[in-house]
Amino acid sequence: MANVLNNDRKHLCVLGSTGSIGTQVLDVVRHFPNCFKVEALAAGKNIALLAEQIIEFRPSHVVIKDSEDIAALKSLLVAAAIKPLPEIISTAMAMDDLAAMPEVDTVIVGLVGLTGLAPTMSALQAGKRVLSANKETFVAGGHLAKPYLKQIIPLDSEHSAIFQCLAGASCSEIAKIVLTASGGPFRKLGAEALANVSTADALKHPNWVMGQKVTIDSATLMNKGLEVIEAHWLFGVDYPQIEVVIHPQSIVHSGVTFVDGVSLLQLGAPDMRAPIQYGMFYPNRVETPFDACKFSIESLNRLDFEPPDKQRFPCLELAYEAGRIGGSMPAVLNAADEIAVQLFLAEKIGLMDIPRLIEKTMAKHHGDGVVSAPSLAEIRTIDHWARTTVTMLANHHPAGLLSISH
Questions:
Q1: Which among 26, 74, 120, 182 is most buried, taking Cβ atoms within 10 Å?
Q2: Chain segment 154-198, per-residue pLDDT in tens
Q3: Whether the Cβ atoms of residue 144 and residue 124 lie closer than 8 Å to each other
Q4: pLDDT digits (tens, 9 = 90+) for 203-229
Q5: What is the pTM assigned to this prediction?
Q6: Could you write out the DSSP letters of every residue in 281-309?
Q7: Torsion, CA 362, CA 368, CA 371, CA 374, rounded to 10
Q8: Is the pLDDT of residue 18 over 90?
């Protein structure tokens, strides 16, 4: 570890600090205080947790979602006798500015949804190293991020695994990328039963602890579909070269088959702190302080693999279709999924209405005309259109959305 500790300390901006990724990033920082300095935090509505993070890590800059929460946050910090108080702001461009701060060299994007795209681009254009767990950046704006790939380290366990397996190999050496999926909580459930699952059951992931949106996406396999599009951009491979396999143990996190027939698979415990720590210390490896991340191959009893059932889980094929069409279609897929998942979490639609709404929205966008290489502004406009369209379709209960109720 000495060679790492003697290096310059990394100065971090953590976007989404109170979410699943952000809290685990800060857990790594907590165990390696000589290696990292938290300069900036950005969070949503969890003011109490954000205050605890500020008290512990003492960032100089903080961004919160709503300006009306600034007074409450300051009150918590004053009560804890924090001096000086960090600069606390809440504006439309606040996270973009935070990600480009001169004091910061590493930006960690733990945001969910399209909100991650603009600050990611701001950080990349400012020359920062970006550690990203925000797959939507690459789904909606992969063509925008493509010129900056050398600055990006993926944090998602699957893309981190592929990144590690490639170890600098060129795209021409890749025959196939294999993305593993746990299959979620409904892997063996029949089609009829899937239409009637509850929100509570969908939130019970068998292996991973994640945010609600990602957990529902895992239940529909949309999460894996978004990762297919992300892999296309991150690793420069065409969609026929990206294969999804169901691996219920979540021990093999993904892998690569090379043109010479050799396959490399990355194995590890299902704990996100392992890929997060790898990304934060890259290109070094450091002994993990987390017992849950320590993996012993002797503990393996079996490893199972099976193809995904695209009939029962149509979101996966919808993502492949959006990726193949390209242009603005993946942004539509992403936005439609976000709203459909929100409707499901609010118990306004059933689980299988999610792919129905997405498919109808994609069809409407295809009819209106796909934009070949949308700008950030155009992506935002298309994103808004898709969200509005999904909401309208759900409210009007069109034919085919059989399980919409309430």
A1: 120
A2: 999 999 999 999 998 988 999 999 999 988 888 888 888 888 888
A3: no
A4: 876 665 667 888 899 899 999 999 999
A5: 0.91
A6: HTT-------GGG---GGG------B---
A7: -80
A8: yes
Residue 2: pLDDT over 60: no
Contact by Cβ (8 Å): 379, 387? no
Q: What is the DSSP string of 38-82?
A: EEEEEESS-HHHHHHHHHHH--SEEEES-GGGHHHHHHHHHHTT-
CA 247 remoteness from chain centre:
20
Question: In a 10 Å sphere around its CB, with 0-12 CB exposed, 13-18 middle and 19+ buried, how is residue 377 labelled?
Answer: exposed
Residue where the block lists tokens 């170890």: 167
Given this model, what pLDDT does residue 1 score? Answer: 31
Q: Could you give the CA distance from residue 347 to residue 340 in angstroms, rounded to a whole number?
A: 11
Distance CA 254, CA 354 (A): 26
Q: How far is residue 305's CA from residue 28's CA, in Å, rounded to a whole number?
A: 31
Asked if the model's pLDDT at residue 291 lies above 80, the reply is yes
Q: How would you list the strands of the sheet with 263-267, edge to edge? A: 242-246, 174-181, 252-258, 263-267
Categorise residue 88: left if φ over 0, alpha if ψ from -120 to 50, beta otherwise. Answer: beta
pLDDT at 204: 78
Give the H/E segment covering residue 177.
Answer: strand 174-181
CB contact at 8 A, 164 and 266: yes
